[in-house]
Fold this protein.
Amino acid sequence: MAHIVCVKNPLKTPASLLLLAAFSGIASAQSFTLIQPSNVVGDSPYGLSADGSRVASGGFSPQSPIGERVAYTWSRAGGANIFGLEPGVRANSEARAISGDGQVIYGNAGRDTNAAGVHAFRWAGTGTYHELPTVQGYTSSFIRATNGNGSIAVGYAQFGRPGRATRPETR
């Protein structure tokens, strides 16, 4: 049995529905959860905890400056937790990877997620935002995946040229 989670995105609803249709033939029985956070729009879900209970994402919040994304997690029990608005978190953040237990989040934050000056981060609860160092000689770092317990993350660094894979040290 498969349980498929779909974020209702008013800007991309047809794409979300297409995703559901693509999975419909894979499992013999399915259930669907339509995530509709009331305080975030323009969602881009990127990661899912091992049990499927928590989603790592980025979206636009009424509390964020116009045009800037905020990193957040979503769970059925707690709804949206917009940690991208915590003090110290850089503007324009996205949660891109989540540990298996859903407790450790990695992502990137900066003025433009495709330009120089973007930095990878690690977050494991209120007040734990930690910006990861950028690889020497590069101006931006991005995290795209983490292992089950969140102790290792993988991503890339760039400086106006194709990215180079990195493995940031976590403590």
About this structure: The two ends are 37 Å apart (CA to CA). Residues 1-29 have pLDDT under 50 and may be disordered. Residues 13-23 form the longest helix (11 residues). The first strand starts at residue 2 and ends at 7.
